[in-house]
Amino acid sequence: MVKKLQKLSADKKKSNAQLSSTVKDSAQQIWLAGLGAFSKAQEEGGKVFEALVKEGLTIQRKTQAVAEEKITEATSRVTTMASDIGSKAQGQWDKLENIFEDRVAKALAKLGVPSARDLEALSARVDALAKGSKAAPAKAAAKPAAKAPAKKAAAKKAAPAKAAAKPAAKAPAKKAAAKKPAARAAADTGASSPSSAS
Predict the structure, then answer these.
(1) Cα 14 to Cα 168: distance, rounded to the nearest angstrom
(2) Is the dihedral of CA 22, 26, 32, 36 positive or negative?
(3) Could you tell me the pTM of the whole model?
(4) Which pLDDT tens digit goes with each residue over 25-83?
(5) Cα-Cα-Cα-Cα dihedral of 124, 127, 133, 139, to 10°?
(6) What angle is formed at CA 146 by the lines to CA 152 and CA 144, rounded to 5 degrees?
(7) Do 105 and 181 form a contact (C-beta atoms < 8 A)?
(8) In the chain, where does DSSP find H-type helix?
């Protein structure tokens, strides 16, 4: 039995030695694999880095394009909303302006201030009266000029017969005197009506 135990212990020593050599070999292989990976990473590292930079650039361009689309879309939405709000506000301002103008016109009418239409109508009426009064003095000037030679002729005829001529001369003179104030009064009312109307 002692022999068996010795044999077993010798086997154990051999197996321990084999196990330790196997572990050593394994560790050596792992170390060598790490060194190989490190050197490969150094060789290939530049290439991998450049590939990663290229991928990053393409992704950045894509995201910028998407962001620009979103910004353009948002800008167009805001622009349309602003134009809609502006048109609504303009409509409200127009309504407010019309209400204000109506109220001011009513207040001025209550105070007796003439409107622009009233002033235009009055101006047209004054122009018409001015044209009419220019024609009336020309007619009035023509009538006295025609009557003056008739008076002179009547005065010459009446000179030989003074007694008979005095009452006859006085009568046309009275008629002419009566007609002159009437013509003056007509001319004065034509001239005074535009000034009193304005």
Answers:
(1) 186
(2) positive
(3) 0.30
(4) 888 888 888 888 878 777 777 777 788 888 889 999 999 999 999 999 999 999 999 88
(5) -100
(6) 95
(7) no
(8) 2-111, 116-158, 162-197
